[in-house]
Amino acid sequence: xxxxxxxxGTEIIKGRIQDTNSGYIAGRLYSxxxxxxxxxxxxxxxxxxxxxxxxxxxxxxxxxxxxxxxxTRDDMTKSAACAFFNSRLILDLELSRKLEKLFxxxxxxxxxxxxxxxxxxxxxxxxxxNPRGTASGLLLEKYGKLLFLLPGVPVxxxxxxxxxxxxxxxxxxxxEKLYTAIVRTIGIGESVLAEKIEKGLSEREKTFLSYYxxxxxxxxxxxxxxxxxxxKKPEILKVADHAASQVRxxxxxxxxxxxxxxxxxxxxxxxxxxxLAESCSGGLLSKTITDLDGSSAYFEAGVVSYSxxxxxxxxxxxxxxxxxxxxxxxxxxxxMAEGVRKKTGADLSLxxxxxxxxxxxxxxxPVGTVIIALSxxxxxxxxxxxxxxxxxxxxxxxxxxxxxxxWRHLTRENR
Length: 415
What we know:
Elements lengths: L1 E7 L1 H4 L7 H11 L3 E8 L3 H12 L4 E5 L10 H9 L3 E3 L1 H13 L14 E3 L3 E3 L8 E6 L2 E6 L3 H20 L7 E6 L3 H9 L4 H4 L2 E6 L2 E6 L10 H14 L4 E3 L5 H11 L4 E5 L5 H7 L8 E6 L3 H8 L3 H7 L4 H15 L3 E7 L14 E8 L2 E8 L4 H21 L4
Helix pairs in contact: 2-6, 3-4, 10-15
């Protein structure tokens, strides 16, 4: 069965925020055996929303729309849905009571006037409870057509989709779950990766493969081709196993775990503590690691030693070392890694120092020059890299490369 995903929000059209909801929904629908025919994005305009709903229902039976359920005047999704279904907004007393309790818990004396509209729902709609926010999800149905309305806030949308929307779809349409395998890689480019993997595969097997590069990594997804004969689970697994064997030294996961989750598991299991010394990355690596729940089990400390003085004061990097080699150099990176490990008593440490630009480069050390060092009980080593891109890309690539170096150090006996 085909569906259409509709992202509603002028802030998306204007580029103020990114539409991450549609990608999430599409991926989950595909895994559950449904086909997304289109993904559309439109602004907050009642006439346009109504027309788009009409256009979409001329092609499919189900629309999943996100956004436009808030309390302000630019949130028009509910009123547009009412116009299409020839319905009207009515007050739901239970939702009204829940809003009262919610705002009291937040120390409001009463519900703000604008927020009272959150208790208005299209007459005849099924309310999908949203414990994570004030905007409930809604299901409107007429003549066999289903319109799901979900809030645009990603955490609220995901909760409602998983707990309400997907179970309804599976119960109603009984789709067979499609099997998908994933091979997550790092340290190898997309074209080289594809060339290595596709050797030895039949033309049909190659249609199972999709490549998704992101931030210095490439995910190889092995799944049903969009057209043609369906592939069975053993066939999917065979291709995934082949792909992993061809690039074994670059495979860090065979599931949905990202690189930092993999590192977290290894560090936690081995009861190792990690410390970081960052300069050009500005604490980005520390942030990425501590974004994970439970990171206190293995993350000891992070020092953002941005200036030369900070490197000397907090990491005990000798002034003479910086004067003689420069802050962006192997000797200084080595001293940073050793200094933070000594100061914190961590088992492992990483140091990043470089030139993120757009200024500060030279002929000898152009913008994008980054030195990354790793220190452990077996010694300290530093590597020099030359990253392309703008300031943010260089910072991001430095962070991912540092994580790769740590992963290779922790798993070298298993590769």
